[in-house]
Amino acid sequence: MHPAIFVTTGTDSKYGADYNPLPPLQGPNASYATYNYPSDPGATFVLTNKASEEAKVAAIKMLDYMFTEEGQIRAHFGEEGVDWRRPQEGDVANEESAEPILAAIPGKEGDPPRNSAWGSMAQYFQPKEFRDGWVQEKDIYSSQGYERRLQEATNLYEGKEPEEVFPHWAIWIDPAVADETAMMKTNIKDYIDQNALQFVTGSKDLDKDWDAYVKGLDNLNLKRYLEIMQAAYDATKQGE
């Protein structure tokens, strides 16, 4: 959950501390939360046929380095002593039971950009153990405590996700139906998002309008979309 999508967070924010995550709703049998894979499929590192052999080797060596903890820190955070520092006495990791690994050194207001790291563009290898070790302030509503705020929100949902999750990030859609699938996916998602807002705000009633909502999904070729996704899943499983 990212409150920063909706409100400004940080020490100077007027409303940042007014927004907090809700734990999964408790139903008659159990609490339940959906699961969203944290990464989207797609190429983030490409070598073209225009690259020389020397350039290819150098690029692959750089990528290999970024899959080490040292390389990930250098690429994501920047220079030691400038952009980040080693843990000090009293530092608390993002996950409080974890061993602190590093602490970011925030820039001062008015300072020019450091431009010494790629930041989120360099997130090639950040397992949970790595992010757990980032030092964060105890105040989750401060700018330097934001990762802890996200961590605590995540912990509310951990263990409540379904046991079986459709691996949309790993399946390969047949190119012959890729355009058709993309169009249906866009229309279905927009329809769900719009109706979710209407149900939440009360402009639609769950008891009176639910059947019409489901019929609307049928009109958007939901059955065909599910057939394509099932075929892609089956093909992926056969190729394993």
From TrEMBL:
SUPFAM superfamilies from the UniProt entry: Periplasmic binding protein-like II
Gene3D superfamilies, per database record: Periplasmic binding protein-like II
Domain of life where this protein originates: Bacteria
The name this protein goes by in its record: ABC transporter substrate-binding protein
UniProt source species: Paenibacillus cisolokensis
Organism taxonomic ancestry: Bacteria, Bacillati, Bacillota, Bacilli, Bacillales
